[in-house]
Design goal:
Blueprint: E1 2-3, E2 9-15, E3 23-29, H1 35-50, H2 55-71, H3 74-84, H4 92-102, H5 104-107, H6 117-129, H7 134-153, H8 167-170, H9 183-195, H10 200-210, H11 214-218, E4 225-226, E5 231-234, E6 245-248, H12 251-258, E7 289-290, E8 293-294, H13 300-305
Antiparallel strand pairs: 1-2, 2-3, 4-5, 5-6, 7-8
Helix pairs in contact: 4-7, 6-7, 9-10, 10-12
């Protein structure tokens, strides 16, 4: 220990390795570090010196790691996660929206490494208490887990706090949706789609006729449509399971496709930009939100699956 004129005491390691000059390394101020803690650190440092390492370099690495962790706030990590991961995922936009809505308002400026399972549990319980569907709370937990998994992958945290969350005790059992469109609703949707202009009207008509998912049809390109073989091939990148999928085309579908325009600038089947880009399926409109909830229509695809 070193006693300073001010009365402060610094706990210090003094040792000699071989014939080298005695080594002195400050461990910390007495009061901030206990004697027992100082002895534990000193033993670890002596082992490090014998193996050729340097406690000073280890301290520097620890300070740099702490500085990186402090700078890695949730807002910063989320921006990286969205750019590097979510933009390439099929449900990336939905995951990003859930994080922006329920996590960033409370966590934006907090270091990711500072959060624990209690913070995660509180966020999930707040979302579930709003009265939204249980499915949203389950999806929010999945989005939160993915965000922390990215931080773990980038060495920003030591463990994923979501691993300590028991899904069923916090949210409840995940129940599959059973709501499907009735025959009357399907007829009403078909009549409404027939009155809509291109691309929206034909897009909804093709959804009804094929039972395919929205993004599978909205992102269709003429190169994926084989009129001779009467097949529509959905590439793996746009299909849910990540595998190529073929959809047979009926005569009604072929008749509908025959009415659609072909563009010189691009080969998108449904486009607002002369075929260069596919029709967007997510419209940032206030009509999709009401009382803090996203308004979603029942899926016609699930109705198709019941036939």
């Amino acid at each position: 220990a070193v006693v300073h004129p001010s009365g402060n005491i610094t706990l210090q390691l003094r040792t000699r390795i071989g014939a080298r000059t005695p080594i002195r390394r400050a461990i910390g101020k007495h009061g901030q570090v206990t004697v027992q803690q100082a002895r534990t650190i000193a033993r670890r440092w002596i082992e490090l010196l014998h193996s050729g390492g340097d406690p000073k370099a280890e301290q520097r690495k620890q300070r740099e790691a702490a500085a990186r962790a402090a700078a890695a706030t949730v807002g910063v990590v989320f921006a990286q996660f969205e750019a590097r991961k979510l933009r390439h995922q099929r449900r990336g936009q939905a995951v990003a929206a859930a994080i922006r809505r329920d996590l960033l308002p409370a966590w934006h400026d907090r270091p990711l490494a500072e959060l624990d399972h209690r913070d995660v549990r509180d966020a999930i319980e707040r979302a579930a208490a709003r009265g939204t569907s249980g499915a949203y709370a389950h999806n929010l937990l999945d989005a939160t887990r993915a965000l922390f998994a990215y931080g773990l992958e980038r060495d920003l945290i030591e463990h994923n706090p979501c691993d300590r969350i028991r899904r069923q005790s916090v949210i409840g059992r995940k129940v599959a949706r059973e709501r499907v469109l009735s025959d009357d609703e399907l007829r009403a949707l078909g009549r409404a789609a027939a009155r809509l202009p291109y691309p929206w009207g034909p897009l909804y008509q093709l959804l009804l006729l094929t039972g395919a998912r929205l993004n599978e049809v909205a992102g269709a390109r003429w190169g994926e449509v084989d009129l001779a073989r009467k097949l529509f091939t959905v590439p793996a990148a746009r299909f849910k399971t990540g595998q190529q999928h073929q959809i047979p085309l009926t005569e009604d579908v072929l008749a509908l496709l025959a009415t659609l325009p072909r563009f010189r600038s691009g080969d998108c089947v449904f486009s607002c930009e002369f075929g260069e880009r596919a029709t967007p399926t997510r419209m940032r409109s206030a009509r999709r939100w009401r009382n803090g909830r996203r308004r979603c229509a029942p899926s016609s695809r699930r109705r198709e699956a019941t036939w």
